[in-house]
Specification:
3 domains; single chain; globular; Alkaline Phosphatase, subunit A; nine-stranded mixed sheet; alpha/beta; Arylsulfatase, C-terminal domain
Length: 662
């Protein structure tokens, strides 16, 4: 008896319906993951690869499974209708194309990463090119004769690869945040504190990518920060405040832990500080001291849960508006979601969705980093929270991070040209690739950035107007940034080895409880000073591991009974800023860049074999910031003693903090 061709067609259709899901989970994901393992081992342990794979598998399955089910239901029954058969044939072609695109994309990405490990094709920007290549190849395969039956020869491999990957899900319950080694008790650190009624509320506002060099509050020519200037009339402005790192994860970790990256070891964007440092962090101490703690942000990379501090916050919300697998809300349940989000399949999906949204749904334009969801959520939490118990609220806002274009009425205020007015046409080349930008475009991008500074300044001002009456005058307010942004020296944006003033010089404005007059603090300060200052205000003893100092003890702007006149005079400070993103988290620190600032001198020291696209040969540089604030003249040859002195300071700190971790 001959087989029923209708039944055979239905069997093939059912396989085609689920094959793209199997191709992604059983072939593309394993290939992509294997090509990413070396990168992962820079910031996670080998054993953590298992839950990372499980998280990636689960997130992709959650995305793909509903779509596959729809196709399966549509194709599983045979039909004699010519129209339906033609429709099914078209759907089958689409499914073949999707499966082929996933497999080809994974193979092409893996091949490219392998070649780049030998220094080849380092000038090639893979994201758009690989996406186009994969889509074109997938379409070619889909329309090729007998493509379905040929591709389905991989069905068994894809199916069993998918089932094997599913076993990694069993590891997830054992690798959550609660599954870490027990955190060290902070009871002995907190010690005796003031009564709850006398402790001040603390409001910490961090603004992403905000450089002091672009703020009129700090002397910029463009009037970018009128609201922060008004706020500073009743606060203390620190004229020389510096970031300890040049990207979000490392610098936010320094703010919250009072330690520099060589100590907390959040060295890569998807990483987080080591457990011992987190357990002695500012949120941990404040929570233990009886503070009600809250976090709201619009940048998932700065998320309190993603960076490992979620256990110390009573309330947390990620209000980022971009679609991403990296989301602080997901990280509550899946610790490795932001690690998994680094994989090419997630990056491809995010790019596809973002480009589609930019082109088709950006109405009204440029509200991609809208601060209002975060500020409204923060105000709602404040309104509902008991004010008789001290409050610590941290709000992180995304503008003026790239893409820079702000919405109306800020867009065009500093450059009236039609260039770079939307997300889709305002891409900025990062790091050394920025040297390829024309001077004209660089000036336009700088103007768009400044417009975004004024945009976020407005919403920070509005937020403070509403938040401070809710909290009362026994409140400390801190306005600062994680890092700045570069448009000079042939170096764009931030991160990488670049440690220029425009990246490191950040705002730091503190309004102490009941402060009513303006003060300027001329001495140097850095991010690790923020946690000790806030702990001092809360009557908490700073842990010995913290590397910063309380700014209350450098000059008595604010009358605090716990700060004596003798404590107010302390030695001049040395600031260290660094980037070790190409160094493994737990290894000795041998590859990266470190800046040391003492007085008006700044030394930038490069270490190890750095690899960045279009990177020129790098040499240590010494700058006299008082005479050369633009860092145009390297004084290392005519000031060798000063350079040697600062280099010895860096070496001493690396001997202390830069060894391998157990």
């Amino acid at each position: 008896m001959s087989p029923d061709p209708t039944s055979s067609a239905a069997w093939l259709a059912r396989r085609l319906a689920v094959f793209p899901a199997y191709a992604v989970l059983g072939i593309a994901l394993p290939i992509s993951f294997l090509t990413w393992v070396e990168r992962y081992l820079y910031y996670i342990r080998p054993l953590e690869l298992i839950p990372t794979y499980g998280t990636a598998w689960l997130l992709l399955a959650a995305l793909i499974a509903p779509i596959s089910m729809i196709f399966w239901l549509a194709l599983h029954k045979p039909t004699q209708s010519r129209t339906v058969r033609n429709l099914r044939r078209g759907v089958s072609t689409l499914l073949i194309g999707v499966a082929a695109t996933a497999i080809v994309g994974a193979l092409a990405t893996g091949t490219l990463l392998w070649l780049r490990s030998f220094g080849l094709l380092t000038q090639f920007d893979p994201q758009i090119g690989l996406a186009v290549f994969s889509l074109c190849t997938g379409a070619s395969v889909a329309f090729a004769p007998r493509a379905g039956s040929t591709l389905l020869k991989l069905y068994a491999l894809a199916k069993y690869g998918t089932l094997l990957g599913a076993f990694s899900l069993l590891s997830l319950p054992f690798f959550g945040w609660s599954g870490e080694e027990p955190a060290e008790s902070v009871a002995g650190i907190v010690g005796p504190t003031a009564t709850s009624n006398s402790k001040p509320h603390i409001l910490l506002v961090t603004i992403d990518t905000l450089s002091a060099e672009s703020m009129s509050l700090y002397g910029a020519a463009r009037h970018t920060t009128p609201n922060l200037e008004a706020f500073a009339r009743h606060a203390t402005t620190f004229d020389r405040a510096y970031a300890n790192a040049n990207f979000t994860t490392a610098s936010i970790s320094s703010i919250l832990t009072g330690t520099r990256p060589w100590t907390h070891r959040a060295l890569q964007l998807p990483g987080w500080p080591i457990a011992g440092v987190r357990s002695e962090s500012l949120p941990a101490l404040l929570s233990h001291a009886g503070y009600q703690t809250g976090y709201i942000g619009t940048n998932a990379w700065a998320g309190a849960t993603r960076t490992g501090f979620g256990a110390y916050f009573d309330f947390g919300r990620d209000r980022s508006l971009t679609l991403s697998a990296c989301h602080d809300g997901l990280t509550v349940f899946f610790r490795y979601d932001c690690v998994a989000a680094e994989l090419p399949p997630f990056r491809f999906i995010e790019m596809l969705v973002e480009k589609t949204r930019q082109i088709a749904f950006d109405r009204p334009p440029n509200w991609h980093f809208d601060p209002r969801p975060a500020t409204r959520s923060a105000l709602g939490w404040l309104a509902a929270t008991d004010k008789s118990t001290p409050i610590f609220l941290w709000v992180h806002l995304m503008p003026p991070h790239a893409p820079y274009p702000a919405p109306a009425p800020w867009l065009g205020q500093f450059d009236s040209s039609r260039e770079a007015r939307r997300e889709a046409d305002s891409e900025v080349l990062p790091a050394f690739l920025f040297a390829k930008e024309t001077k004209e475009r660089a000036h336009v991008l700088q103007a768009r950035y400044d417009e975004s500074v004024k945009y976020v300044d407005y919403f920070v001002g509005e937020f403070l107007k509403d938040a401070l009456p809710l909290l009362g005058d026994n409140t400390a307010v801190i306005i600062t940034s994680d890092h700045g942004e570069s448009f000079a020296h042939g170096y764009g944006t931030h991160t990488g080895p670049g440690l220029f003033e425009s990246i490191l010089h950040i705002p730091l404005v503190m309004k102490f409880p009941r402060q009513t007059h303006a003060e300027h603090a001329p001495q140097i300060a850095d991010q690790v000073d923020i946690a000790p200052t806030l702990a001092d205000l809360a009557g908490i003893h700073a842990p010995q591991s913290w590397e910063g100092r309380s700014l209350l003890r450098t000059k008595p702007w604010w009358q605090n009974d716990t700060v004596s006149q003798a404590d107010a005079t302390i030695p001049a400070k040395i600031v260290f800023a660094m980037n070790f993103e190409q160094n493994r988290k737990r290894s000795a620190l041998t590859t990266g860049s470190v800046a040391a600032l003492e007085g008006h001198w700044k030394l930038v020291h490069y270490m190890g074999k750095l690899r960045y696209r279009s990177m020129p040969q790098l040499h240590d540089a010494l700058y006299d910031l008082s005479a050369d604030p633009g860092e145009l003249t390297n004084r290392i040859s005519d000031q060798p003693d000063e350079a040697e002195h600062l280099l010895k300071l860096i070496a001493a700190e690396l001997d202390r903090h830069g060894g391998p971790l157990p």
